[in-house]
Amino acid sequence: MIPLDVVKRHLRVEGDHDDALVELYLAAAVDAAERYIGRTLYAEAVPEDVDSGLVITPSITAAILLITGHLFENREEVVTGTIATRLPMASESLMWPYRLDIAL
Length: 104
Description:
The protein has a single domain (4-102), classed as Orthogonal Bundle (Hypothetical protein yqbg), CATH 1.10.3230. It contains 4 helices and 2 strands. The protein has helices at 4-11, 19-37, 58-73, 90-95, and strands at residues 40-42, 53-55. The protein is globular, with a radius of gyration of 15 Å.
């Protein structure tokens, strides 16, 4: 859905040493995005027999890249030596308009 080279450029990853990990985090980010918006994402066209599908938009692509970056940079659940703070999630803001439960 999002080419690996685009994701690696976003993450500033060179070479192929981390490809499997990047692909895992990308798949997790797509899954998280689909669960958040309540829709199945498609690269080009939604099949006619799918009611709640959505062709991936630039906003959702950016959100998936942000989630992937977060997973890649924060590989552990606990950070020591700092105060835990939840940062505003731009990914949520980018995906919010596409949620089924708030569709106009």
